[in-house]
Amino acid sequence: MDALDQIHALAGRIGEKDVKNLVLILIIFGLFGCATSYAPKSFWNDGGFSETEVQPGLFMVRFVGNEFTSSERTADLAMLRAADLCLAQGAEFMFLGNIATEVVQSGYIPGSSSTTSSATGYGAGSIATAYGTSQTTITPPTALYSPETGLTVACSEEKADGAWNAAFLAQKMRTKYKISSN
Predict the structure, then answer these.
(1) Dihedral, CA atoms, 163, 164, 166, 171, nearest 10 degrees?
(2) Three-class SS of residue 153?
(3) pLDDT tens digits, residue range 74-115?
(4) Given a cut of 80, is residue 156 above it in pLDDT?
């Protein structure tokens, strides 16, 4: 029995509207069912990193996660991107500043309701009696939230007080999240 046959069989047991909601949930989990990967931000990636060089060697870096990404991961991957930028410029060290992580509303799943009713009627002659029941199930709307981290990084070829070792940081983050080297 393939997936479509299973869905049709399930529809016969739980109702067509419930199956539509189930299919929608499965599609959402299929598309977005994992934490954001370390890649440039794009529609297809549902998050990722971006950067802007605002002065020579000074970057604003941002990492946006999805609903399955932790705040810790977004901060770590923003720092990894900062380290990669500095290493690509031949700078061994970096100065991080203005690190901020926030959680923002990133989506919305509308609520729904369904009503099941039944009625029974009795009649004899000119007298009729009817009894009925009705049950409404309400699913409230759900807001989706995602973490975002922003920071500034200044790349430096020389070690100074407060400087971070870019290669060390990059290696530790890649190991922690099992990310291969460029």
Answers:
(1) 170
(2) strand
(3) 999 999 999 999 999 999 999 999 999 999 998 989 999 999
(4) yes
Distance CA 48, CA 86 (A): 18
How far is residue 28's CA from residue 34's CA, in Å, rounded to a whole number?
11
Residues 99 and 72: their CA atoms lie apart, in Å, by 12
Read off the tokens for 134.
């009705």
Cβ contacts of 175 within 8 Å, gap of 6 or more? none
The rounded distance, in Å, linking the Cα atoms of 133 and 122 is 15
Please name the amino acid found at residue 20: K
Handedness of CA 39, 33, 178, 148 (dihedral sign): positive
For 17-38, what is each residue's pLDDT tens digit? Answer: 665 665 555 555 554 458 889 9
Three-class SS of 93-107: EEEEEEEEEEEEEEE
